[in-house]
Amino acid sequence: MDEIRSDIQRRLRGYEFRTFSVGLSLPEGMQEREDQLRAEYKLKGRETIKAWLSKSLSERVARATHRRVDKLNPELAVLADLDASEVRLNARPVFIYGRYTKPAGVSQRKTFCASCRGGGCAVCGYSGYETKASVESTIQKRLGPLLGSKKMKFTWIGTEDLESTVESSGRPFVVEAKNPRKRRVPRGFVSRTGMGQIRVSSLKLLPSRPLKLPGFKFRTRVAIESTSTINPEDLRRLSRLMRNVVVEFRRPGEKPAYK
Length: 259
Hints:
The protein is α+β, with helices and mostly antiparallel strands. The protein folds into two domains: 2-91, VC0802-like, CATH 3.30.2130.30; 94-206, 2-Layer Sandwich (Alpha-Beta Plaits). Helices cover 24% and strands 25% of the residues. It contains five helices and nine strands, in the order αβααββββαββββα. The strands form two sheets. A five-stranded antiparallel sheet has the order 6-7-5-9-8. The chain has a four-stranded mixed sheet with strand order 2-1-3-4. Helix 1 (2-12) crosses helix 3 (49-65). The chain is elongated, with a radius of gyration of 27 Å. The protein starts with a helix and ends in an 18-residue tail after the last helix.
């Protein structure tokens, strides 16, 4: 038991967590043998070997790490395979809310490499994506190492086309960092690209996956050209017509929709 506990402690180094759970995978045939003995001697209502071992191991790890056992929603789940003498760790995902601003020419999301279409090649460094900076790749490159997470999933609150700028307080987003080693994030950061700065701010940890995403309003500035002279009265009429008007727009790559 102490050998398993020592192995778990060694694997836990480098992980930030307050709560944990321990699950066990017994050697082949042990569970069946216990069931046979229980049936033969009519043993009921007693703790199983697996439950006793898991409880004892959890108590020893808790004393050694000064962390609390939580079987329902642990920040770190430990699975000890007694047959293979292996220990696997699975950290609960971290959900982060934040906002970003970007200059024109920087895309929101990563785009597949034009040469391999996501398959990976020498042009893209076998990543499958364009090497040009995007908001997604910038956030992932900064937060990934800080959290010790190799896989991140983004939820965007709306989108904008490539040539749009995002200014003011920024567009909100939520990112899920899978199997993180760390559970703390900075308030924000600035990344400089060839086209300007990508600024990420208001970063904060969410207690769980958001059930409802926050609303987001944005203001669009439109430049209009006319082949004829527009007089002040026409502008006043246009201003009156534009009150309480619903404006439809299409996302980049979508076909125009007409009513």
